[in-house]
């Protein structure tokens, strides 16, 4: 685990400055201020959790970079919407599809980018062997993906029932929730395979 103090960790400080700067920029005139607030609840909760537990457990800079990148993808979606942004236009041209795929990209990135930090935390908090860490990390990503879908449902039902389907972004796909969890799992598996190969090469 990382031992350098925050005051001397210039790389982490740079990540924070860049993230805050981009977040402020994307906070100006979002497509829907109401939906922007709802989408940012996840970001705020994550940042509060990371700051409040920093002295108890500190991730490596690589993990903080992956976390920041994922939060930036979510921040971008909160500003431009997950249904109407220029990344969707690009993906439609490549995939020859009318569906908005940015939300699928973010769900895949959830597993791809956050699996490593999760494995890092599990390595410090448990006595699991290396092989089991890869498996449990993928299981945790799948569980967190399913829980996030429940959070979306609760928010849509309690906070914003009038924009429920828009907020959920199902786009008429009855398997949308399943595909989102599926992609997160695929992303985690890829991340763990790359991590395993990288660790083996480093030995």
Structure description:
The protein has 203 residues and is an all-alpha fold. Helix content is 75%, strand content 0%. It has eight helices and no strands. It has helices at residues 10-27, 33-52, 61-80, 86-95, 102-125, 130-158, 164-168, 176-202. α5 (102-125) crosses α6. It starts with 9 loop residues before the first helix and ends with a helix.
Give a quick account of the main beta sheet: strands, pairing sense, barrel closure.
Answer: none
Q: Number of helical runs?
A: 8
Low-confidence segments: none
Helix content: over 70%
Please, what is the average pLDDT? 86
Structural class: mainly alpha
How big is the Rg? 18 Å
Distance between the termini: 17 Å
Task: Please give the oligomerization state of what you see.
Answer: single chain
Comma- or semicolon-separated keywords:
mainly alpha, 203 residues, globular, 8 helices
List the helices and strands and how they pair.
Elements: H1 10-27, H2 33-52, H3 61-80, H4 86-95, H5 102-125, H6 130-158, H7 164-168, H8 176-202
Helix pairs in contact: 1-3, 2-3, 3-5, 5-6, 5-8, 6-8
